[in-house]
Specification:
rod-shaped; two-stranded antiparallel ribbon
């Protein structure tokens, strides 16, 4: 029968390995308790660590989408304010047209009407050049360029043409984007005046034509402008409706993100929440193991040293 001889160095190495293992487990547990988290290092729980990474990635994407939505909502609000003011101008322009078309006005009244329409046109140019966060809201992609400029009685649109891709879109989820702007030419149009005759489109054309007809004291032509103004008013209200629909979409997308954020927080908490009573019990157990391994090693070293001295 053979006897396997175990060397003192092997026993000592095993003891050191046990001390290191117990110390490492004790340190990991102390770190988790100190942080108040179930996972302090990925090695504490590789599977749930992977889940946490996925949740964090989703949360980071949602943060970006939420910033996009907040920025878009701000621009939508600025657009809605401008459109509401434009609608108010159409109301006043129609009132002026009705008053000027009754055929009983004298030169002074026509002059007053013309001055007021001049003022309305100036207000429309200012509204057409509305901006948000330093960006022109009606210029398409040319956000550094004023949408409209004037030259005499001409009003020129300088933004991205409506025949080109003018919509600025933002991503509000992994699968969807939304347009945040309207085309200034679609909203207000443009006008050129040559030989006392206006050509163009949109509200700028209609109000400039009204102004010329008032200047010419032409009650019949002034009366024809009433229906044109009503048509433009309805078209502007259509744009108001478009902005309203997009705003609702943005608010719904934001609400979904906020709901997901609450769920993500719950999921993270479920993974990371540390059962403190159990952790403290485990800590006491690990401390006992560590102290026992130290005590055993101490006795082993004493025995080995005595054997050496003998």
């Amino acid at each position: 029968m053979s006897i396997t001889r175990v060397s003192s160095s092997f026993i000592i190495n095993q003891g050191v390995h046990a001390i290191q293992g117990n110390l490492s487990a004790l340190t990991r547990l102390q770190n988790r308790i100190s942080a108040g988290k179930n996972i302090f290092l990925p090695s504490d729980d590789p599977i749930n660590t992977s889940s946490l990474l996925r949740i964090n990635q989703e949360a980071n994407l949602d943060d970006r989408f939420k910033r996009n939505i907040d920025e878009a909502l701000g621009e939508m609000e600025a657009t809605n304010v401008a459109l509401t003011s434009i609608v108010e101008i159409t109301h006043r322009a129609r009132e002026i047209a009705v008053q000027a078309a009754n055929g009983t006005n004298g030169p002074e009244q026509y002059a007053a009407f013309k001055r007021e329409v001049d003022g309305l046109l100036n207000q429309l140019v200012a509204l057409g050049n509305s901006s948000y966060a330093g960006r022109q809201i009606f210029s398409g992609f040319l956000t550094d360029t004023p949408a409209f400029t004037t030259s005499g009685q001409d009003i020129i649109y300088n933004g991205t043409p409506n025949t080109a891709q003018f919509e600025r879109r933002v991503q509000i989820s992994q699968a969807s984007t939304i347009a945040i702007n309207l085309n200034g030419d679609d909203v207000l149009g443009n006008v050129a005046v040559a030989g006392g005759v206006a050509t163009g489109s949109g509200l700028f054309y209609v109000l400039t034509k009204l102004n010329l007809d008032i200047q010419n004291n032409d009650a019949t032509s002034i009366n024809a402008n009433i229906d044109l103004i009503t048509t433009e008013q309805a078209r502007i209200l259509g744009h108001v409706g478009t902005i309203g629909e997009r705003t609702k979409q943005l608010e719904m997308a934001k609400s979904r993100i906020e709901d997901r954020t609450i769920l993500q927080a719950k999921q993270t908490n479920n993974i990371q929440e540390l059962d403190m009573p159990k952790a403290i019990s485990d800590l006491n157990y690990r401390q006992t193991l560590y102290q026992a391994s130290l005590s055993s090693m101490s006795k082993l070293l004493e025995t080995s040293l005595l054997s050496f001295l003998r």
